[in-house]
Amino acid sequence: MANQITRQEFLTKTAMASAALLVSSLEGWANVTENKKLKVAIIGCGSVSGSYIPKLLTSDVIQIVSLCDIKYDRALERNKTFKVNAKTYHNIDEMLKGEPFDMMITLTDMQVHEGLNRKAIMAGKHVWSEKPMANSYKAGKELLDLARSKKLRLWGAPAVVNSPQFEFMSKKIQSGELGKISSAHGQYGHTGPTWSAFFYEKGGGSMPDLGVYNMASLTGLLGPAKSVMAMLSIVTPERTVDDKGKIKVEAEDNAHLLLEHDNNVISHVMCGFNFYDRFGHQAKDQRLHSIQIYGSEGNMRLIGYDWETNGVAIDSVKTNGEEQLLCTDKGGYEWREGAKVVGESMLKGIEPRINVEHALHVLEIIEAARKSQETGTRIKLKSKFPWPMVGS
Ligand SMILES: NC(=O)c1ccc[n+]([C@@H]2O[C@H](COP(=O)([O-])OP(=O)(O)OC[C@H]3O[C@@H](n4cnc5c(N)ncnc54)[C@H](O)[C@@H]3O)[C@@H](O)[C@H]2O)c1
Questions:
Q1: CB-ligand 1 contact for 68 (6 Å cutoff)
Q2: Is residue 99 located within the same domain as residue 244?
Q3: 217 and 101, same structural domain?
């Protein structure tokens, strides 16, 4: 009961803080005309930028004004291939002094997100960051505090909570159709990226690259985790990657985490860079049940990955044990939509479902899993986020 009151207070406080922040972050746009566009700058023009740029170009209200990469030819190539007509830069300092913009979109190697995000916030920019937004929970929280002190918004991938399937599953759990929820499982893996070494270097790994999606889904559905236990390992100690040739793998490429949620619910996440996947990186036709929820009166399975959702299967007392395939329509949801959705939400003055405290919570889980592996102990978490994320 005491816990419930605390959470209720927390929800009220954070909801009010978020709304106040959104209003204050838009104060500078008090004279917004109908033609006001959100100017964005992309830093990191590698693999994922090839998904982000075309998605952002579909927005009527977002304009990509700058592209930046320390491998400058990549910025030039993206500008040309997608006919962006942006200014191009060799590094963040040049970009921050160049064409004015409102929000930076950080798509670089994971380990440098934190420093780049800090520079952008210091320069008065809103930030959407690919995961992770920082290298530790503490640093991520400091970034958020810094952003708030400057009336800026900070956002972190992934955007799995935006999918209609996430919403559907959350409502099903809240409706009680599955009875008392006790356990859940999430999994995501493939044989690992081949193009860049950072995925395997310290601060990389399969948790911030892949497991992060399941952690966001499971905490989003079941509520914040209170503690974490994990076993992590390196199964393939050497890899050959495009940018650096043969490298030593320093970050876990195989991870199992147990998360303790409220009401004695336990969930499990399994991720790795050594999983054969017959559907490869695209996952369009993937039928694997990547998220599974178990209750006393029914079970629910997300078909496909939480970033590439293909439907939800339910069998319950209510369905007489028959499996029903439901919510098969993505409703336009795409994993690469995060920066576009938050950018448009800011312009429209509405608060999107995706929430930075949730991204920070997932970052704390990843860090706790590393600590649990190092110490062989269960690690308590302190962060929370507004939950439930979907109204019932
Ligand atoms: N590739 C995908 O399909 C995918 C999907 C979802 C999320 N992500 C995430 O996106 C991020 C980038 O992944 P990627 O696959 O595009 O990597 P990538 O190696 O293909 O691209 C990263 C780019 O960032 C540039 N870069 C590095 N440091 C920089 C700096 N200080 N300033 C400017 N540019 C810098 C690199 O030169 C490179 O071009 C990661 O966080 C990853 O987890 C990738």
A1: yes
A2: no
A3: no
CB of residue 131 inside a 6 A radius of ligand 1? yes
Whether 27 has a pLDDT exceeding 50, the answer reads no
What span, in angstroms and rounded, lies between the C-alpha atoms of 63 and 220?
Answer: 31
6 CA → ligand 1 middle, Å? 39
**H helix count then E strand count, the chain:** 11, 17
**254: confidence class by pLDDT, cuts 50, 70, 90:** very high
Does a structural domain hold residue 299?
Answer: yes
Same domain, 18 and 85: yes
Same domain, residue pair 120 and 188: no
User: pTM for the full model?
Assistant: 0.93
Among protein residues, the one whose CA lies closest to atom 21 of ligand 1: 46
End-to-end CA distance of the chain: 21
Q: Are residues 66 and 166 in the same domain?
A: no
The angle at the Cα of 285, spanning 279 to 288, to the nearest 5 degrees, equals 75
Q: What is the pLDDT of residues 271-289, one digit of tens each?
A: 999 999 887 777 677 778 8
In a domain, 260, yes or no: yes
Rounded to the nearest angstrom, the distance between the alpha carbon of 198 and the centre of ligand 1 is 9
Check if 69 has its Cβ closer than 6 Å to any atom of ligand 1.
yes
Is the residue at 389 inside a domain?
A: no
What are the phi and psi torsion angles at 124 (to 5°)? 85, 25
Number of domain units in the chain: 2
Last residue in a domain, options 125, 156, 187? 156
The CA 312 to ligand 1 mean position distance, Å, reads 31
Ligand 1 touching residue 156 (CB < 6 A): no
CATH number assigned to the domain comprising residue 16: 3.40.50.720
In order, the DSSP letters of 321-364 are T--EEE----TT--GGGHHHHHHHHHHHT---S--HHHHHHHHH
- Residue 335's CATH number: 3.30.360.10
Task: Provide the domain limits for residue 337.
Answer: 161-341+354-380
How many angstroms separate the most distant Cα atoms in the chain? Answer: 64
Ligand 1 atom, smallest distance to 196 CA: 19
Say yes or no: CB of residue 125 within 6 Å of ligand 1.
no
Q: Does residue 70 line the site of ligand 1, with CB under 6 A?
A: yes
Ligand 1 neighbour 181 (Cβ under 6 A)? no
From 67, 71, 108, mutation site for ligand 1 pocket: most ligand atoms within 8 A of C-beta: 108
Q: Tell me whether residue 388 is in a domain.
A: no
